[in-house]
Amino acid sequence: MTETPAFRLVGMVHLPPLPGIPNYRGTPLSEIIDQAVADAVTLTDAGFTHLMIQNACDVPAQTTVAPSTIAIMTRVATEVSAASPLPLGVNVAHNDGPGALAVAYAVGAPFIRVKLLTGAAVGPDGIMAGCGLATAELRARLGADVRIWADVNEATSLPLARGADDVWAAVEAVKFGAADVLVVTKDSGVPDALDAIARIREALPDTPLVVGGRVGPAGIAATRAGADGAIIGGALKKDGGHFTRVDATLARGFAV
């Protein structure tokens, strides 16, 4: 496994709508694979340290996914891993931790991202419950050497626990959910995410803390100074969305 760098610069490989999903556009699987591999190579050449694949364009978003989605993402992850030497992460749907772990185990990917490992939240698809137990049980049964990156608060939903602040949620994700890395995203921007990271670090000094979104070229220097990594997605696209491909010029702007 590739040694973890001092700062994890993670480039997102967003997959187009996959077969079997209501908004599937008819893109052949071979083309989906080619697009993912092309984005992975672009990010690798730009100097990113990690990659992460996600079925980000599947709408309506699902809390857990069908076996067909797991199979397709495993195929894509296999091809991406063959095309790039970078450590690969897997993020499945809104909160399919066991599904992501299954894909990662099958392809030898070293980490997954789980949006709601512990606690409960309400979002566009209804109430989501933490999948920490199911994810941990599967990791133990498989003997999988896969690290869990857990969001402190899932960005598209609201926590149901009254008075649940970032520090409480972070501690529970690590102590109850066995998270290895924590991901912090704030809609209000990078400064608020870094402020939350500073507070969480006091309670969990040994846990790596990564900014999970909203990081643009103007905020990457502050993120490098205040966090252990950043996940870059929409800022890699000319339109800031999920559906278009990674732009090489924008990608190079994030690497040192």
Structure description:
The chain has 256 residues and is an alpha/beta fold. Helix content is 36%, strand content 18%. The chain is built from eight helices and eleven strands. It has helices spanning 29-46, 67-83, 97-107, 132-142, 166-175, 190-203, 220-226, 248-252, and strands spanning 8-14, 50-54, 88-91, 111-114, 120-123, 126-129, 147-151, 158-159, 181-184, 209-211, 229-232. The protein has an eight-stranded parallel β-barrel, surrounded by six helices. A three-stranded antiparallel β-sheet has the order 6-5-8, with no helix packed on it. Helix 1 packs across helix 2, helix 2 packs across helix 3 and helix 3 (97-107) packs parallel to helix 4 (132-142). The radius of gyration is 17 Å and the shape is globular.
N-to-C SSE string, H for helix and E for strand: EHEHEHEEEHEEHEHEHEH
Number of strands: 11
Mean pLDDT: 93
Distance between the termini: 22 Å
Q: What summary fits the major beta sheet?
A: 8 strands, parallel, barrel
The Cα radius of gyration reads 17 Å
Low-confidence stretches: none
Q: Portion of residues in helices?
A: 25-40%
Strand order in space, largest sheet: 1-2-3-4-7-9-10-11
Tell me the fraction of residues in β-strands, as a range: 15-25%
Shape: globular
Structural class: alpha/beta
SS summary, helix count: 8
Task: Give descriptors for this structure.
single chain, alpha/beta, eight-stranded parallel barrel, three-stranded antiparallel sheet, 8 helices, globular
